[in-house]
Amino acid sequence: MNYTLNQLNIFLRVTKTLSITKAATELNLTQPAVSIQLRNFQDQFDTPLIEVVGKKIYVTDFGKEITQLAENIMDQVAKINFKTHSQKGQLTGRLRLSIVSTGQYVMPFFLPSFMKQHKNAELVMDVTNRSRVIESLEQNTVDFSLVSILPRTPVVEKLDLMENKFFLVGNTEEKFKKTPYSKQILKELPLILREKGSGTRTVMENFIERSHLAVIQKMELTSNEAVKQAVMAGLGYSIMPLIAIESELQNGRLQIIPVNGLPIKNTWRLIWLKGKKHSPVAQVFLDYMRKEKNTVIKKYFSF
Q1: Is this prediction's pTM over 0.90?
Q2: What are the pLDDT digits (tens) for 118-130?
Q3: In the predicted structure, residue 88 carries a pLDDT above the cut 90
Q4: Which residues of the chain does CATH 3.40.190.290 include?
Q5: Which fold has domain 163-266?
Q6: Where are the alpha helices (DSSP H) in the chain?
């Protein structure tokens, strides 16, 4: 065995993103560079770590075991770096975040200033659905999570960030009046839903159930981007968070359909396990968020 820390890191990014392209983007490398290092790492094992079926990457059972061991190794490396830099009075360490998929429109704007201030800090951020975010909290594998719906379990502490609003949206081919429609309009429109377990799906279903509506479910998709594209293509309508559709509203590719009872409102929150003892980098990040959140919100989310 003669693998490098760089190969371990590349392998972990590929297993997290399940994409050479996404891993290369996150690592600021070219796709060929990632592919070569991944192949060199794989060549040191007799058993496949990943499999490619069609264009999709799957991690084998053996690959999942190696992933866990690789994460442990990189955690130890982070601790060594922390010891080294702490001697020089520099903040270092690995900040682990898990965020719901819609959070990709929120959390990135809170990070650049912090990362510039603390150049030796390393960020690991998993963008996934709500179920996996809650699972990462329960397993205590992250420092913080970003959600808009608080979990019933585990017990968490929270920092409120900003309001989250959900509207009924469609493409701009059909004309709708500007005065609010009755909720009954949802019974007439084919609806596109997110997958079960997502926060957006939960918000949408709760609203439909409270309104006692029998709706037409047209299709189910696994990301806000996929839902957005389907709505713009005219395949149906959906209830979506404003933050995910701002640019499409501005360029006229989507429209908000006014409905009594909408928008649905909740709050983006940074959460962590109650009683969790934060690492130095996590504590500094939390202090930074408390201090700077209003400045970031005013700068980027005034809409």
Answers
A1: no
A2: 988 889 999 988 8
A3: no
A4: 163-266
A5: D-Maltodextrin-Binding Protein; domain 2 (3.40.190)
A6: 5-17, 20-27, 31-42, 61-86, 112-117, 130-138, 199-210, 224-232, 242-250, 280-300
